[in-house]
Amino acid sequence: MGTVLFVLANLSGLVGFLYPFLLPAARTASGARPDAPFVFFALTALCLLVLIVDLTARELDARTVALMGVLAAVNAALRLAETTILVMPGGFSPVFLLIILAGYTFGTRFGFLFGALSLLASALATGGLGPWLPYQMTAAGWVGLGAGLLPHPSRRAVRLAWLVGYGVIWGMLFGVLMNLYFWPFMAGPTGGLEVGLSLAETVRRYVVFYSVTSLGWDAFRAAGNAALLALLAEPLLRILGRFQRRTVVEWLSPEEG
Question: Quick one: pLDDT at residue 130?
Answer without folding.
Answer: 85
